[in-house]
Write a structure and sequence with these properties.
- β19, α13 and β20 form a beta-alpha-beta unit.
- The strands form three sheets. This protein has a ten-stranded mixed sheet with strand order 8-7-9-6-10-11-12-13-14-15, sandwiched between helices. A six-stranded mixed sheet has the order 16-17-21-18-19-20, with helices on both faces.
- It is 31% helix and 24% strand.
- The chain is built from 15 helices and 21 strands.
- It is α/β, with parallel strands linked by helices.
- The chain starts with 12 loop residues before the first strand and ends with a helix.
Length: 462
């Protein structure tokens, strides 16, 4: 189903397949807030499904044809294929079906000031930055973020104004279903080559995204990224730029890091200096993320100096340089980094923390990404003293035998302190026997690699 409008189709009852997922559950909450009857199914019960029941949704566990009680619309995510029994039931009954991205785009139409944060890296953190700053500025946005944000107690918050903010993922060009008043492009890198042909194909998608923004709207763009510059030609909307190194509308200057590895900086706009802004999250990449947020708030009428205090209160989100604990003066950190650019940024951030040896445990994410970016991955761990590679997290893909984690481990340079260990339990034991007081261990990847940090903490405590 395409080109539909939930306000025009007299839709009252919506059924979501995979309702317990982080994005689908948030959509369900927003639909309930807008008065829709919501039902849905998921493979297992969880805190999320319990919360949705408490809010009035009808939740089924498992996927069965009988769960589809003649709703007006069925929504499914990318993991739900056509042979799913509930999708089959919908087809047999002639019930319209649509994707999660299309539904999210339709919800955005209900808000006059919707914001969509796009880019190859940093979407969740920047969305969280903007959400927090908008809340402190009393703009009361509806928030949908791709991670747990402590300040809102989860990944969704229902506001009562015209403001809405969400991430906009480029994978399978799903962000072209969105209708933002403000679009943000943080950066553009080669990724998702199981769908995109090459960098030009990726840039073409971002260019289309930029052209979704209405003439009175804004595109907020990272002017240090040449790929971003390339996709901003012939825009219909207002362009507002930010950077660290280039001439732009907003520029971060005088960047310094404190003993905790957290940056502070000033912002210059129209020859006026604002700040200093002190962050409570590490890394130069977070200067870019914070600067994108400050620039975005300016388009909403909020002066930068009003953001100095609240921006320091942002302590990050789950799985983004997340401190798991410290045992025997050994720091354990977990991070979502799963792309070579993200790995380099995370290890660069770790460099600003006081430590002796830096141990990196990496779980590659998808076979297609590992194969396509093998050369880039091989040079992205240079700031780590020791590297452990575990098996590829397949996610949505089958193993074709074309690439393995062993292949990656063999390619990493320098290679003398790189090992391939497939089992998590073996990795945690290996680390517990080899790490020394003063060392830092970082687990990295978009899968379940974070479990190793918890295992290691238990072993060190024992």
């Amino acid at each position: 189903m395409s080109n539909f409008d939930i306000s025009e189709h007299k839709i009252k009852h919506i059924h979501l397949i995979g309702i317990g997922g982080i994005s689908m559950s948030a959509i369900a909450e927003i639909l309930l807030h807008h008065g829709y009857q919501v039902s849905g199914s998921d493979l297992t019960d969880s805190k999320t499904t319990v919360r949705l029941r408490d809010k009035g949704a009808q939740i089924f566990i498992g996927h069965e044809k009988s769960h589809v009680h003649s709703p007006d619309l069925i929504v499914y995510n990318a993991a739900i294929k056509e042979h799913n029994p509930e999708r089959v039931a919908g087809m047999e009954k002639g019930i319209p079906q649509t994707t999660r991205a299309q539904m999210l785009g339709q919800l955005m139409k209900k808000y006059n000031k919707s914001i969509a944060v796009s880019g190859s890296h940093g979407k969740t953190t920047t969305t969280s930055f903007i959400s927090l700053l908008m809340a402190y500025a009393k703009l009361d946005p509806t928030i949908l973020v791709g991670g747990d944000l402590k300040e809102i107690g989860g990944n969704v918050k229902i506001g009562n104004t015209e403001h809405f903010i969400t991430e906009a993922c480029e994978y399978v060009e799903s962000f072209l279903q969105f209708f933002p008043f403000i679009g943000i492009i943080l950066n553009i890198d080669v990724d998702h080559l199981d769908y995109f042909k090459d960098l030009d194909h990726i840039k073409s998608a971002f260019n289309k995204f930029a052209h979704q923004i209405p003439a009175e709207g804004f595109l907020v763009a990272n002017w240090d990224d040449t790929n971003v510059k390339d996709v901003t030609v012939d825009l219909n909307c207002n362009l507002i730029t930010y950077s660290i190194h280039s001439n732009s509308d907003f520029q971060a200057r005088d960047i310094v890091f404190n003993e905790d590895g957290h940056p502070s900086f000033y912002v210059v706009h129209s020859n006026k200096q604002y700040g200093p802004f002190q962050l409570s999250v590490p890394g130069m990449h977070n200067v870019y993320n914070a600067l994108a947020a400050i620039t975005t708030l300016f388009t909403l009428g909020i002066e930068p100096n009003a953001l100095v205090e609240p921006i320091q209160k942002f302590n990050g989100i789950q799985r983004r340089f997340d401190f798991i604990g410290e045992v025997n003066n050994i720091k354990i950190v977990d991070d979502y980094a799963h792309h070579p650019v993200e790995i380099k940024a995370t290890l660069e951030a770790a460099k600003n923390y006081s430590h002796n040896k830096l141990w990196c445990v990496f779980q590659p994410h998808t076979y297609s990404r590992t194969k396509a970016l093998l050369n880039d991955f091989s040079t992205s761990f240079s700031l780590a003293d020791h590297v452990i590679i575990t098996d590829i997290y397949a996610a949505r893909e089958p193993d074709t035998g074309e690439v393995s984690s062993k292949d990656l481990a063999d390619r990493i340079v320098p290679n003398e302190n790189v090992v391939y260990i497939p089992e998590f339990e073996t990795i945690s034991t290996y680390l517990s026997k080899n790490v020394q007081p003063g060392d830092m261990v970082i687990t990295m990847g978009a899968g379940n690699v974070f479990e190793i940090g918890e295992m290691l903490k238990s072993k060190l405590n024992a």
